[in-house]
Structures are given as C-alpha cells and as structure tokens.
Amino acid sequence: MAIHRVAQLGHPAIRSKATPVLNSEIGTQEFKRLVSDLIDTMRDYGGVGIAAPQIRVTKRLFVIEVRDASRYRNAEPFPLTVVLNPSLTLEGTEQETEWEGCLSIEGLRGQVPRSTHVLLKGLDAEGAPLTLELEGFPAIVAQHEFDHLDGLVYLDRMTGMSSLTFLNEFQRYHRAQAPERPSD
Ligand code: NI
C-alpha cells in the first residue's frame, strides 16, 4: 500500500491533458500498483474520487467511492469504481449547483453547476467495458474527476468566484446547508 502526496494546483500534472491507458498496460503489476495507490491515496485523504494526474501520473483513469455519504448533501454510498479511458456524456439539460472541493486545491470550497444526469463509459480495472448511468452526487463526482483528465479543475466550472470560500468559513457560515453530521 502506498499513499501519495496529492499534487496541488500549480503542479504541471494538474493542468496536463492525460493520455489514454494502453491495452498492453492493463493487467501488468505496475498498472495494478497504480490503481491500488490511487485507491489508497483517495481513502487516506478522505476523498470521494481521485484522478491519476493528481498523483502525477498523466493517464486517463480515475476512481470514485463514497463511503461516508453523511458528509455530503443528498448523497448515498457509492461503491468503489475504477474507470479507465472514460467518455462522459451529459444527459438532458437539468443542472444542480453544489459545493465542491478538490484534493488538489486544499482548503477551498466553491459552488459549481453540474449536469444532474451523465452517462459514463470506459473500461474497468481489468479492461472490461463498463457503462454507468449516474444521477445526483455520483454524477457530480464523475464530472469533477473526468475534468481532471483534461487538465480542468472545478474553479474552471464555476460561473463566478463569489462563492469561493476557505474551509474554515465554509464550515462556519455555509455548512448549515448540509445535513448535520452524525458525531464521528
Ligand atoms: Ni479534484
């Protein structure tokens, strides 16, 4: 198990366009290690998703997992999902605006409009085709992680900077919009 230090905004990998995972890589020890490192790092940082560029590997894969859904508004647990070479299609015109943060932009939160429904296709960790219809919170996470593969961060998706908030102030003034966390 290897936990990586997550690259922060300003690191070139965060603004790079990632390259496709090659078929010949899938199944190799090195690739399996990359996938497990991504998972370990996401869990250690308490994230709900992470993309490979965030650990300085500019390849097109990300992982999503929601274990403690109580931290987020309108969220439910979502199983660990690894996606290689994803395509993402926004479905319909419905959008919702939610607070987002990013492991590569420590200490900030901002409100971001995202599509409510998306179709996510790609390959799973073993290279088998994967198709997921996502709605609500997992759809938001998928859009956020997919953007990382094109060098985009949630700041680029905000309609303005006026909601941008430091974490302390978010917890003090804005968290009331989210349900109370059970004591943990
Ligand atoms: Ni992020």
Task: Write a brief caption for the model.
With 184 residues, this protein is of the alpha+beta class.
* Average pLDDT reading: 94
> What's the architecture, going by CATH?
Alpha-Beta Complex
Provide the CATH topology.
Peptide Deformylase
SSE-based structural type:
alpha+beta
Low-confidence stretches: 179-184
Order of helices and strands: HEEEEEHHEH
Which CATH first-tier class would you pick?
Alpha Beta
Count of individual helical segments = 4
Bound molecules: nickel (II) ion
* Inertia-based shape: globular
Q: What helical percentage do the residues reach?
A: 10-25%
Distance between the termini: 25 Å
Q: Please provide the count of β strands.
A: 6
Alpha-carbon Rg, integer = 16 Å
Let me know the CATH homologous superfamily. Answer: Peptide deformylase
> How many separate domains?
1
Strand content: 25-35%
- How would a textbook summarize the main sheet? 6 strands, antiparallel
